[in-house]
Amino acid sequence: MYKSNIEGALCYEVKTYRYTVAGRTMAEFEILLFENGQIGSQGKIIESGEGFSPGKVYPTVEEAVQEIINMIERKIIDNDWVQKTIKYSKKIKY
């Protein structure tokens, strides 16, 4: 594991994701892989510009991604585009 030597410094990797609905990007989010092994996340709803973060750390990337997806879906569920996509998708039998 790598380590910063300057007090107050922090080094981390950022993985960037996009959440799309029917081809439209609804949100972007980042998974933050910190030098101490902790994993965090933060995101932004594109339409409103609202930034958000769960404000906690995770043991795995998968858990961090899933929780932020759940947050995004709660924030966009009432969006007109999302509602139309849900309605249209129910009409189509795959």
What does this structure look like?
- The protein has 94 residues and is of the alpha+beta class.
- It has one domain.
- The chain contains two helices and four strands; from the N terminus they run ββββαα.
- It has a four-stranded antiparallel β-sheet.
In a nutshell, what does this entry contain?
This protein has 94 residues and is of the alpha+beta class.
What number is the mean pLDDT?
93
Q: H/E order of the elements?
A: EEEEHH
Unreliable parts:
none
User: What Rg, in angstroms, do the CA atoms define?
Assistant: 16 Å
- N/C terminus separation: 46 Å
Structural class: alpha+beta
Q: In one word, what is the shape?
A: elongated
Strand content: 25-35%
Number of domains: 1
Tally of strands:
4
Helical amount among residues, as a percent range?
25-40%
List keywords for this structure.
94 residues, alpha+beta, four-stranded antiparallel beta sheet, elongated
